[in-house]
Specification:
This is Helix-turn-helix domain-containing protein. Pfam families: HTH_17 (PF12728). By secondary structure, the protein is an alpha+beta fold. 31% of the residues lie in helices and 12% in strands. Strands 1-3-2 form a three-stranded antiparallel β-sheet. It is globular and about 35 Å long. The chain starts with 18 loop residues before the first strand and ends in a 17-residue tail after the last helix.
């Protein structure tokens, strides 16, 4: 495995195509960047803080906005703020 990718626990590697920035998530969802930041801080969007930046995995964002009756849908942690 090269230094530009790592195993995500499945067959998928971490690549530039499946990692999104705050701006890309905002454009994808049609919401302001500030709202993306707020949702990430509250745990309503799956994200990871790296330094001063937030990063998002494309498949987890897709699952987060999937219908809630979808058994594969991501759900925020209970009691998160």
């Amino acid at each position: 495995m090269d230094s530009s990718s790592r195993d995500l626990g499945g067959s998928e590697s971490l690549t530039r195509d499946n990692v999104l920035t705050t701006t890309e998530v905002a454009e994808l969802l049609g919401i302001p960047r500030s709202t993306v930041h707020q949702l990430a801080r509250r745990g309503d969007l799956p994200a990871r803080r790296v330094g001063r930046r937030w990063i998002f995995l494309r498949d987890r964002i897709a699952a987060a906005v999937a219908p809630l009756d979808d058994p594969g849908a991501w759900r925020p942690k209970m009691g998160s703020k």
